[in-house]
Structures are given as C-alpha cells and as structure tokens.
Write a structure and sequence with these properties.
Distance between the termini: 12 Å
Number of helices: 14
Order of helices and strands: HEEHHHHHHHHHHHHH
Radius of gyration: 23 Å
Shape: elongated
Oligomer: single chain
Number of strands: 2
Amino acid sequence: MYPTVLTQLARANPFSAPLFSLQKVEEPQQSLHGQRTRRLAAAATADEDVSCDFGSSKYYALCGFGGILSCGLTHTAVVPLDLVKCRLQVDPDKYKSIGNGFSVTVREDGVRGLAKGWAPTFIGYSMQGLCKFGFYEVFKIFYSDLLGEENTYMWRTSLYLAASASAEFFADMALAPMEAVKVRIQTQPGYANTLRQCVPKMYAEEGLWAFYKGVVPLWMRQIPYTMMKFACFERTVEMLYKYVVPKPRSECSKSEQLVVTFVAGYIAGVFCAIVSHPADSVVSVLNKEKGSTAVQVLKKLGPKGVWKGLVARIIMIGTLTALQWFIYDSVKVYFRLPRPPPPEMPESLKKKLGLTE
C-alpha cells in the first residue's frame, strides 16, 4: 500500500514527475484479432459520430489543415501589430511605444503601410501551422506508444513538451524563409514593398543563406514558445474541467467546449509570449542587419533591450494563441474528428496504487 499523502501530492502537482515507483502486476492482456492493443487514456473518445479513426492518415491530414487555418489566418490578421512590434525592437529610438509606432508608420507609409509583409506572413505561418499541429499529433501518439498507457498518464506533461518540441523543430524550417522576408520588408523602409520584390533581391545579395540564417534563433524563440503553448494549454484545459467548469466535459455542448478551449488558449498565450520574447527580439534584429550573428545581436541589445516590445507581444500572442486553439478545435468539430477528453488515470494504475478495491 502506498502512502496516501504521497499519492495525493503526485496527482495534484501538474508539472512534476511521479513521486513513486510502481510494482509490476500481472494483468490479463486485452487482444484484438490476436494482437494486444495499447490505448492512450487521453485518446479515449465518447461514443459519438466521428469521420475517421484517431491517429489515422485522414486524422493527421485534417489536423494539418486545421493548423494551416489557425496559424495562417491569425498571424496575417495581426500583421499591423506585428509590424509595430518588430520596429520597436529594431529601432527603439524612432518608435517609442505601441501608439507612437502606429502613428509614425501611418504618417510615413499611410494606412496601407500597416499591412506590409502580409504575404510572407500568410505563407510562412500557414506552412508552420501545418507542421506544428500536424506533427504534434503524430509525435504525441508516437511517444505515447513508446511509453505505454500508464507511463503516458504519469508523464503526460513531459510527453506534451517532447511532442511539441519535436514538431516545432520541423515547423521552423518551413517558416524560416518567409519570416526572413517578412522582417526585411517590415523593418527596412525602401528595401522592398512586396514578396515578389524582396525574395529575388535577398537571394542576389546573400544567396540561399539569407532565408535560413535566422533558423537557429527561430528555434530558440519558437521551441520554448511551442512547448509552453501546447503543454500549458493541455494542462489548463484539464484543470478548467476539473476545477472551474461546473459539469463534466461529456455533458458540455460543443460551443461550451470551444469556450473552454479559447480561455485555455489565452492563458497559455500569455506565458508563451514571456518565455519566447528575448529570442524574438534577436530574430527581428538579425533579419534586419546583414552579416550579424545571434550572439552579436544579443550582446548589442543587452538584458533590457531584449524585452523591448513585450507588452505588444503579450497582447498579440495572447489573442493569437487563443484564436489559434479556437480555430483548430473548431476544424476538428466541423470535420467530426476524434476530440479526446482530458486524460484520466488508467484502471490498471489505480489498482497498482491501491486506489480501487
């Protein structure tokens, strides 16, 4: 029998590793057509009409499509705020604040100037969303199969972190070229006004390296951001249903579930912005200046400089992340994809912990 207090602590702490070890218990194996099946507790779906199997090729493809919509549309919608944020980071002497940044930009470039960089933003972040959300689902199931049902439950936060980091590694390689183009258009007035003007000019000056020199700082910015985005979202949803929502998820309507998704997404977005902002500042300056390295830019900005534009980014990323999760979950609802409820402790683990008779 395990100590009751220790068990309660392990279950209550959302981010810790298990505080106990398990003894091996022989259990009857469940089989399907002679093969043992392993099912993630979080992947268990309610008895509802779904259009495909959880973890099928169609499921992954539609999740990727949801990622395209959620990231491509939302990032394009906040291009004006992103433009001002980037200019605050690279030229703080000229752009004093968010309000001042908007007024200076409109005075110099007109209202249309606020939309600079929309095309590379839409293309780049659509490709990033495809890889981010699509590969997250792939890696989450892959790592879960490696861990097994019980370890998946106990180490679920670590699983979310590992799956999201793996997905973002590939997503940033898809994003890097268009991110470099976007920042060059937004932060160097007169360099180029459109995607078609900027790409050949950058290639002629610096070659292919111009589009990928920011990929390492992108990893520095986006991987911690995405790890926080997914892990914090998953655990926040779990806690909202456990402590805030007055009825079980199975009794909530689809609309009510989407409201929970939006709230959890916004909470996750605030933490995402704080975690990734220093690297975001480095990326903005690096893509503006030729021949600079990430280390050089970091030394130039200093401890205070890397936090310039944080308020604008919290507003932008908080709203952005909430909308992304809302759109992504809405796509799952529309296409009737399996939407697993928050994970519950497997019965076999409850027996090992002495939580059931």
